[in-house]
Fold this sequence. Notes:
The structure holds two protein chains of two kinds.
Chain A: E1 6-8, E2 11-13, E3 17-19, H1 28-36, E4 41-48, H2 49-64, H3 88-100, E5 105-110, H4 114-126, E6 131-135, H5 147-164, E7 169-173, H6 180-190, E8 194-197, E9 205-207, E10 212-214, H7 226-235, E11 242-246, H8 252-261, E12 265-268, H9 270-275, H10 279-293, H11 299-302, H12 319-327
Parallel strand pairs in A: 3-4, 3-12, 4-5, 5-6, 6-7, 7-8, 8-11, 11-12
Antiparallel strand pairs in A: 1-2, 9-10
Chain B: E1 5-9, H1 10-20, E2 24-27, H2 34-45, E3 57-60, H3 64-76, E4 81-85, H4 87-102, E5 108-113, H5 128-131, E6 139-142, H6 146-163, E7 167-172, E8 180-184, H7 188-194, H8 197-205, H9 225-230, H10 233-254, E9 261-265, E10 271-275, H11 278-292, E11 297-302, E12 304-306, H12 310-316, E13 323-328, H13 339-354, E14 369-375, H14 384-395, E15 403-405, E16 430-437, H15 442-456, E17 460-467, E18 475-483, E19 496-501, E20 516-525, H16 533-536, H17 539-547, E21 551-555, H18 557-563, H19 571-582, H20 587-602, H21 607-620, E22 624-626, H22 649-659, E23 692-696, H23 706-710, E24 716-721, E25 736-737, E26 747-752, H24 762-766, E27 770-771, E28 774-778, E29 780-784, H25 785-801, H26 815-818, H27 837-847, E30 851-855, H28 859-865, E31 882-884, H29 891-912, H30 917-920, H31 922-929, H32 936-954, H33 959-967, E32 975-981, H34 982-988, H35 990-999, E33 1004-1009, E34 1012-1013, E35 1019-1020, H36 1044-1049, E36 1055-1059, H37 1065-1077, E37 1082-1087, H38 1100-1109, E38 1116-1118, H39 1120-1124, E39 1130-1132, H40 1141-1145, H41 1149-1157, ...
Parallel strand pairs in B: 2-3, 2-4, 4-5, 5-7, 6-7, 10-11, 10-13, 13-14, 14-15, 16-19, 19-20, 20-21, 30-31, 30-32, 32-33, 33-37, 36-37
Antiparallel strand pairs in B: 1-8, 6-12, 8-17, 9-11, 16-18, 17-18, 21-22, 23-29, 24-26, 25-26, 27-28, 34-35, 36-38, 38-39
Helix pairs in contact in B: 1-2, 1-6, 3-4, 6-10, 11-14, 12-13, 15-19, 15-20, 19-20, 19-21, 20-21, 27-37, 29-33, 29-35, 32-33, 41-42
Amino acid sequence: xxxxxxxxxGLTLKNPLVASASPLSKKLETAQQLxxxxxxxxxxxSLFEEQIIQESVKLHNDLMRGTESFAEALTYLPDFGTxxxxxxxYLDMLRxxxxxxxxxxxxxxxGVSTGGWVDYARxxxxxGADALELNLYYLSTDPTLxxxxxxxxxxxxxxxxxxxxxxxxxxKLSPFYTSLPNFARRLVESGADGLVLFNRFxxxxxxxxxxxxxxxxxxxxxxxxxxxxxWIAILYGRVQADYALTSGVHTAEDIVKxxxxxxxxxxxASEFLQKGVGRASALLGDLTSWxxxxxxxxxxxxxxxxxxxxxxxxxxxxxxxxxMVLSSY
Amino acid sequence: xKHQMVTLDGNEATAYVAHKLSEVIAIYPITPSSTMGEFxxxxxxxxxxxxxxxxxxxxxMQSEGGAAGAVHGALQTGSLTTTFTASQGLLLMIPNMFKIxxxxxxxxxxxxxRTLATHALSIFGDHSDVMATRSTGFAMLASSSVxxxxxMALVAHASTLEARVPFLHFFDGFRTSAEVNKVExxxxxxxxxxxxDELVRQHRSRALxxxxxxxxxxxxxxxxxxxxxxxxxxxxxxxxxxVQKVMDRLADVAGRQYHLFEYTxxxxxxxxIVMMGSGAETAGETxxxxxxxxxxxxxxxxxxxxxxSVKHFLESLPPTVKVIAVLDRTKEPGxxxxxxxxxxxxAVNEGLAEGSVPYAQFANxxxxxxxxxxxxxxxxxxxxxxxxxxxxxxxxxxxxxHFTVGIVDDVTHTSLDYDPAFHIEMPETVRCVFWGLGSxxxxxxxxxxxxxxxxxxxxxxxxxFVYDSKKSGQVTISHLRFGPKPIRAPYQxxxxxxxxxxxxxxxxxxxxxxxxxxxxxxxxNSIYSPEEVWDQLPVEVQKTIIEKKLRFxxxxxxxxxxxxxxxxxxxxxxxTCFFAISGVLPREQAIEEIKHAIEKTYGKRGDAVVKQNFxxxxxxxxxxxxxxxxxxxxxxxxxxxxxxxxxxxxxxDVLGPIIVGDGDSLPVSAxxxxxxxxxxxxxxxxxxxxxxxxxxxxxxxxxxxxxxxVCPHAVIRxxxxxxxxLEKAPVGWEAVEARWKEFPGMKYTLAVxxxxxxxxxxxxxVCPAKDKSQVGxxxxxxxxxxxxxxxxxxxxxxxLTIPEPDRTQFSLKTVKNSQLLDPLFEFxxxxxxxxxxxxxxxxxxxxxxxxIVANATGCSSIYGGNLPTTPxxxxxxxRGPAWSNSLFEDNAEFGLGMRLTLDKQQEYAxxxxxxxxxxxxxxxxxxxLNADQTNEAGIKEQRQRVHMLKExxxxxxAPAARQLVSLADFLTRKSVWILGGDGWAYDIGYGGLDHVxxxxxxxxxxxxxxxxxxxxxxxxxKSTPRAAVAKFAAxxxxxxxxxxxxxxxxxxxxYVAHIAMGASDQQTLNALMEADxxxxxxxxxxxxxxxxxxFDLKKGLEQQKLAVQSGAWPLYRYNPALAAEGKNPLLIxxxxxxxxxxxxxxxxxxxxxxxxxxxxxxxxxMQLAQSDAKQRWALYxxxxxxxxxxxxxxENE
Lengths: 329, 1197
């Protein structure tokens, strides 16, 4: 019997298949199904501070619109005693899932203000999260903002949160950094226990008939695995952290590749959203079969086995590789 | 016991008691009583129990008549039952009131007394409604203040149980109902002390029950009806003492003593005013003031008006009385006197004539002389100086009887003169007047200030708020009083210590500082610096500041609001400045209290809102500066005229003063005798309320007409014209080649009315033409108004001189062509971005020169017919829609009546015409009788014939010829359009609407469906869709929307269309054209996005599209004319739903707020709503596939 267990952020997990931050965790029933199907941990959907602010301001503006202006209609809508504005709904769901499942539950947070990040991080910890994933989702469009300034902001933020929060911290990154290894090292030095590679930005599309920019949600496919695979392979061993590979994990082979690159866990959402949560047990079955067929005794045995430091030709991960690919056509 | 002091208005104070003492509450919205029902509904929704621990059951009915019926039934089965209403609503309850009283049923109706519609509707207050019910047998109990509204509500509920006489408790609408004042709240213990549970059980024991069955409601014959009717007398005789006993008990437990007839004044007064309602409080305070200065006057405040106790009344009078002036807040034309006057005359004469004790006090004196007068109709101000002039009149040897006070009657000379300078304000009371716009939050902030001062300090506070009658760019004036003593001044402030103007632009329009007393403070929100601001003030303002020696402060609140993310809401900023300058509270305490109030009010909406407001408060004071006032006037700007000088005389002389808030100064002779007004007057108002207006980009424009089509205020117009007009075109005029095959070589220009636009930007949203190099630039874009106002105005004025193209020369059947037609509905006061008015405007473009409009009461009657001006207008030939509003409930019947006249008079004209065939010529008569008027050309020709006919008839000397001249216009085609909202069509007017459809007569009904009662503030109607939140459906409407169209289709001979302009403008146009063409009844149900839906209305058209795409609002036309051709009459014009309902619904707060408050219920209801849409689509699809054999059974009579 092969040993699928792994360790991530100090948590012992029964296998490397983790449900990534997605709408899957918005419903208690789905979270329970995920556990039943064998996933080893659940990352909650992200709590977006910006969304909370927007929702609050929008609700206020919408309720105030047209009020106290016309003698016959001083208001247009009833005003309720309470609204689920703010982190409460999220925290309630986290608590509910935590009570309902025995696998670790990891919170996920995207803030906009330092105060917001720290405050919400503590609230997520207090609600019972086993760990916290900081979702550094920020798209810089300001040409005067330097990469150094942005990275300093992030590392300061991680440090601030680390001081106030005791549970393990992971940082989920985008691939768009000039020197990712350096930034990764700084994050770990600031207190991150793990790095999650990579965040997927939903890229807007153009409607050519209406000449409008439209939001476009495209789920991942296995081809997207390559980018995080490469970077985990490069970082593994160089920056001492636990790695989670997210984006493009759809098959057992994808999981194997991720672990071989150095990932402690893989995070899956698109596959579940497309084909159902039941895919988890199938993936785990396939994973076991692959390990058995290839005579691996455990996940740990293969972990990092194809990282840049472990392969015979480290240069394969570097620029020469790109040139070789081009020349092969 | 220490009482809790609360600040609230009369409606809330009343509803508080009514909810505590009821088991069943049946309601229906009507201004100004709606909020009582809303409070009751909200409290029950929140699970707030009544005095006995059970939550009252609240139900909204389809009309006040329905509410009264439900009340009657609930009473008959033993529930403690109440309702709230006013005005016409109360009239609809009258039949049940007779029944309820006749059956000696304990009940209370709470009424915020409101003017009855006569020559005009008025939402404001007087006693004409309650006086119309005085023969019902209800006891009538009047309150004069907010405190009394609460207390008398309790007295009514407690008394009725013992008396078995039902009670109508009333107070002045739009004074007491809306005045915020600090009052002592009744505790549960106090309420319990007055309400005897045994009487409740007795009430219940009289109920109908199959367990102890009885019959009630029999029919009786001449032999016994009379006797039975007289058998109630002892109950009425006992009632006054019962009420006084309850009042005495209230005094014991709460410390406030009331009497049936409350006397205030000198014990030896010789002149007495008798009146009821809020005016009695003003009169009482004035009497005190005058007595302190040596007068001997008094006031009797009538609380229990019915049953009228002569004994108690006469006992209330001081024996010294010589003259009694009775003031009625109602008018009964043709009566010997107004009702209270007549009662007092009767009481005095009857009581004294009988000579029974206690009338001995008059034994050796002459009978007091009684005179009567009218005051305060439709909330006309009633002030201390008016009271004084009545007392003064009583000093005269021959005082005027049947006088009026508060107006200048220069026709029948009934009015008394008064001194506008007289006032009795207490010097220790701080009086503040705030001018603002509805959108800037001024009123909300002031209500907050009242709560802060009233509830957090020992001071008393009072607030009253005046709104204009527009629904966009509304001006609000807040009147606030603060002081150490209770404030009994139910009238507006005339001498303010503090005046604030929250909108700079108001200075150029209104005399803001007329309220300022010498040496007082003036705070102005201005974009100009303290150094610049003086020169920007109109000279009239400068002059007043100097003459009155005002201390002048300024702040750029917009700047602070923008820095703190508050947008246009400057409320908390100005509120902070007010506290900082006025000294009503220490500054630090004030800021702390403001923040506390912000947290309390907005905290539930999230930290972000609270934080934003806190920042605004923190930044406010630093931006406020005192302005050094120069010694002399130096400005170049003058206040604008109310209307341009070229406006017609009536507009200048009558409407102009109303526009600038000076309508009170108009004498009786200035007003029409019968409520008839000219149309085409909104064009003179020039409100200049848009900060941004659309600007046309000629190079990008594809001349599709969509911007003009959707413009709710008809400020975007297009013209196709001869190039010769370019010669005199003003600078900056733009023109391009017209893209019409019918108009080769012609020019095209699109113009914008800069001073009439509301800035909604629907036009920009709908514009499909984008710059290929910069897609953000469209063929029409918003730009700041002030810099281009003048140049655009010049262009607009020139544009109006270019004639409309000949309607007979092109088809009206395309959206593009329809916009070449002049709209005859323009510049209404509807909300910016209104979803209703584009339909109304289109209607006038297509048929405006030949329609009569019957308009149900509601939004459309207010933006269509509320003074000062009307958007309904005429074309260059002087033709245009003739418009009238009858009532809310009868509009379909009203319109049918119009049709009957048109048909009858035409029939008569057709009967007469052949008699003159000899003189007119056979051929002419035949052509006139058989004219084809199905198109514009045919109508034009017929008008020419009729014109000729009238000319020819002038030469014929015969009575029948004179008759025919007066009837000839009926020979041209005219349409009746019946307009109204869903509250009318689905609910209160449904019975009539159904009947009118069933008559088969040729009327066209346009339902402007906002899915709520928009005009009264968003109460649920039967059109409200499932899952939407509305007032009276605070938990989200649990049942599906009524399918009015389907019901109408069931007749088979009714044209029915379901339209949404934003989803298909062409289908909208087709439907209107087909409906008008259809020779039978038509019903068009038009999706109208609305401010009550809770989203930015500039996205209104997009929401309409989503509503259709989701299946929430399928588009269809059902044309019986097709059935006659053997075709299926139902054409579904929209595609099968492609998106979930939630994708459409959750863009709107009316749906989303349920998701935020009760996610589980929201999801359940949304699933059901989805299933509703699916089933409805499936049904329509099946209907559209049915085979028709060509017979629809319709016979048009």
